[in-house]
Amino acid sequence: MSSSSSSSSSSSSIQKLCRNLIGSAVQRCRMSESLCRLSVLVKQSVESDRPMVRITISDTGIRSCLDFKQYIAYLFVYFLADGVLTVLTTGLSDEEIYQYCLNLKEHVPSKRSTRLPSRPKHGQKFSGTEITLCTYESINNLVAGFTCFLQKMLILKIPKVAVELVVDPANFSGTRCDNLFIVGEDIFFSSTESNIECLVSGFKDYVLKHGNTLDKQCQSCFSNSCVNDYDLIKIGTACDSESLRNMEEVVEAVIIMTELPESPSPSCLRASSVATRVFYFQNFLLCPISPSLLSSLASIDWKSFGLNVKSSAIDEDGHAVLEWENLPPYSHIYIAIHCYQKQYPFHFYAFDPVLILHRRIQFGRNLIKRAVKTAMDDLKEKYEGTLLSSHALKIKNYAPDLAHAIAGLILSSNDVHFQAECMSCLQLPPYETFDKKVEDCIREKIITAIQMNDRNPQRSHEAAPFLFEGESSVELELEEDEVEEGSASWDL
Amino acid sequence: MATSIKPLNSNLRSFFWRESELEMAGKRDHTNPSALLNKIKDFTRSLVLDLSNGRSPVVTLGRYRNHCSDPTGNCGCGSDQCKGVEVISLQREFHARRLDVLLRVLVIVQKLLQENKHGSKRDIYYMHPSVFSDQTVVDRAINDICILLRCSRHNLNVVSVGKGLVMGWLRFSESERTFDCLRRPSTAHPVPVYVEDVMDIVSVAKYILVVEKEAVFNRLANDRFCDTNRCIIITGRGYPDIPTRRFLRLLVEKLQLPVYCLVDCDPYGFDILTTYRFGSMQMSYDTIFLRIPEIRWLGAFPSDSKKYQLPEHCLLPLTTEDKRKAESMLSRCYLQQAPIWRSELETMLQSGVKFEIEALSVTSISLLSDEYIPSKLQGGFYI
Fold it and tell me: A179 and A198, same structural domain?
């Protein structure tokens, strides 16, 4: 099994077409609302001098209603080996399997789409679609691309949909079928899991594997015993929605932060980059991110989470890549965003794979930005001391000195009763005289207070309590550096 | 070692404040070391209590002004009442730094008070020079502590090296030391640092003369002015430090003598004059204990240049900075109480020139001693 990353397989146009075909297969499966299988079969043919690869994308979802006549022009951008794309599709209530053939080499437009004789179902009840196309592209590239893509699609853990990738290289040792992966764990078939719960589960699996294709999590970083370790993997989620044009748009964001206690061992499978690749899904399909959305993501007030974006870009796979300037060592942040319409207004996509290519829905950027920010807030809220703002981090630096001074006020006092009072308040032994212990206790309390303030930023805007009751509530707004003229030269 | 532990008093803060209010109504009574140590402990308790309850430490300081630009003069500046509060918390980084410095200095102050020792501001600075970075940072922390504990700086056992000088018909003692100026009235003595320890003041002077500059002080000493004039002369050598102002105020209170001030005829001279009379902004929390409302301006007035026929080359044009400063001072509310002073400042600004007191000596080296000061005092030409 390979552990190639997405970057190793730049997406060819054929791969892009196939990804959209997979996307429409997913929609058909979802709409069937019953257990479905989505298969991608990659088979190499050695019948001719030039190796040709046959790709078959099949699903057991509802019937496809392709209207190729209308959209076939779009398909001309794809170079198919034989110029032919065949489609078989049938619905549960159909008595036959409909068969279409698209010949992209045909010069006469009216002859490009042909309906072939249907195949009988012999009374069997099933539904599904199978689309086949051929390409001269390297099978290795194709497999790497599909693997990477499907692996990311699995992040969604789309309920009731099992996905498999089958590769038949047809090498000289004879026919061999490699089932690269098939995913159909229990959780997939649970109807009680919400979309975001599935997303969290799938994304967590992805993170534990560092995005590799291995079935197992990275044992180097996440041993079985500490997978659920509170400190190692922290998850923040958000689900936001708004109604637009009578459709409810839902945006789900999941942030996962991993904080390893030490440098990963050489056996760790994670890529060395500290950059965050943002996985963006639209209507259950992994999609490239738009420059405007990237800009929105980059404009989030990351400093309020103690992060500085060094650079932001879109990589060759269409993912947003956020490079951090100051991520703590051995930490990594993973972001997944899923935008979808709550109802199924996108049903026509289920029938028409081509539309997905050319008519992307523009989800509200502000809604997406808000969801990511809320997910970050959620993570920060849930895990004390995590993602402290740059501001809080700066103030936190003063905690040791402040603690030292307060401890000094207590311990250097010649009033033992006063000292005992303070120790009692700090829940220390009444006559604790070990400076460091007192100091550490106070420091921890200061840090806790700073963290509390940072987690509740709205509270920091409220008026601070007065040290002395009954004093005037008028606060003069004076500049920090307000110094009277000549004051530095006198009053010595 | 069984000792009953009193619960922290949640009403501590209100007690603290109300007590301070009472103090401010008159002379501060609760400023002895024991009382201040108790206040420091109360303050520390409040910090510990806040932290124990998961709250950030917050320090609320009263804010004082000795002037503003309210033209009505009904603003209450310079009074013993604070004009609002300043909240120092951990919400801002510079507040965290300020709190850090304040607490560090407070630890030192607590030790000084407990051990009944004195330390200078410079001593304190050198205890954490890398943290304090600048003397003014320590100065500010000391002011903050004074406001917090409702006391004056000397109450904290923090002193500064006095730079003022005094001479004339005066004798006093400071701790074990006697300053007998009576023997040689024209010999300069340093102003005592521990003004609160000054006792046994004896004087046969008829007035006190405050001069801005050491050069003028030396001129008068050289002219043996005090030998022939029953007076006490004090200089703060520029902007007066706290010991000089406290000592002057002590003399005025104890001896009930009129006090006159001689400054350069320029905006800085005027500013120094107002510092004596109205106090400074930086020490405005302590203004009522430092200012000398009785002080009269003896000169030099803008009109003196004509009256004493100063040559043109002694009249220097006001710089842009001079004009800016003069205009700024004109708007100070406390000048409503001294309209003639304000009027003189306006005249200075309109004339566009300034001159130093030394310019009066251009025709005669002793004009100041022989003619200028005596004639002004005899003629009542002071304002």
Answer: no
